[in-house]
Design brief:
The protein is an alpha/beta fold and 291 residues long. It has one domain. It is built from twelve helices and seven strands. The longest helix is centred in the last third of the chain and has 21 residues, at 194-214. The protein is globular, with a radius of gyration of 20 Å.
Amino acid sequence: MSFPNSGTTYTLDLVSVASNMSMATNYGWERKDFDNTSTPVIPNTKGPFWLQPHEKHPKSVALTKTHCGGYCHDCRPYKSIETPHSFMMHCARAESTILNEDGELKNERHVYDYNTIDRAVHLIRDPFDNMVSRYHLGLHKLQKRNDTELLERYTDDAAGFDNFCTDKTYDREEHTDSHVDQQVLRLIQDVPCHMDLFRYVQWHNLAFITTQDFLKLQTHVLHYEEYSSNFRGTVQSLLHFLELPNTGAYADFEDGKSYRDYYSDDQVAAMRNATMMLASPLTWKHLERYF
């Protein structure tokens, strides 16, 4: 489980290569050998689905991609709010692609039995890098559709990021209607894309509530930067947790760029104080290192 742009794709590829087995996803349209239908991990169920359905499948657990809920990027503040229960239900929401009777592709959404979830891998990435990386994902979509007008304003640098965040700043009344803490809002009102910080912290709070309190799962917390600081040990620990074999073959890891310089010292301080206020004790234990 991961807030988007936290290293999910790399982690799935890494584990697949290292174990020589298929991984899974809640998003059936992501599988790599697209054949018009989604192949569920558990036969005759509505998800999750194999990413590589024709490769060897693990016997015990299938590492499965899910972003759960509350992570929307370019959305109104009220759409970011999740309860612990709605978040948990989103963690088990699968999206499949099927052929209907007319031979046309159709997308369906289902919530599968979350009691089939055996354990959790909780990915965490530096919030400064995570927020800018999310901007770059949106920028990539603009480039794919060649939206030249927006690309002139949303450039691949700190100025473009600031322009995007300025355009996505909502008035105080809308934040109030969304039940966003006004004291926190005052702290971060001058921080670029401050609603994404709210989403980020809320997401990790709810992820810990889901795994620790609701489902009471064994949970492996993986910080993305650990791939840089202790790659081999991180991989071995992850594979051991998943009870998967280790072939010794690993997908290459390239250090991601740090985007701390997109923020002023005052903005970093404001983000720290706001994160401390928003985060649960367990979330802050894992996020404090970034401030």
